[in-house]
Amino acid sequence: MRVISQRYPDIRIEGENYLPQPIYRHIASFLSVFKLLLIGLIIVGKDPFAFFGMQAPSIWQWGQENKVYACMMVFFLSNMIENQCMSTGAFEITLNGRF
């Protein structure tokens, strides 16, 4: 940034952090906790559907047979959604006071 200021002294650079909307922050927080809970259930091997008197779906049975792959998929997919929720996309460029 200092190089740009030295080479182009007329250019003014300002930066700010923009927070995402509160609903998206809450969704990301919920997903983070849910992700850890789900990974814990997969590792321990507990069936949460039996607690509610339901039959486990086939994807849960697959996850119990392939624990490492299932945990990795839960981790990466939920992180992808969390990052999308936390991204604001806020970026503005002005030149001489104009957008």
From TrEMBL:
Q: Where does it sit, as one GO cellular component term?
A: endoplasmic reticulum membrane
Which InterPro entries does this one have?
Selenoprotein_T
Q: Which residues form the signal peptide?
A: none
Per the record's keyword annotation, is Transmembrane helix included, yes or no?
yes
What GO biological process terms does the UniProt entry carry, in alphabetical order? Answer: cell redox homeostasis
Q: Which GO terms describe its molecular function?
A: thioredoxin-disulfide reductase (NADPH) activity
Keyword hit for Membrane: yes
Q: Where are the transmembrane segments?
A: 23-44
Q: Which UniProt keywords apply?
A: Membrane, Redox-active center, Selenocysteine, Transmembrane, Transmembrane helix
Q: Which family does it belong to?
A: Belongs to the SelWTH family. Selenoprotein T subfamily.
- The protein's name is Selenoprotein T
Q: Which organism is it from?
A: Cervus elaphus hippelaphus
Species lineage, top-down?
Eukaryota, Metazoa, Chordata, Craniata, Vertebrata
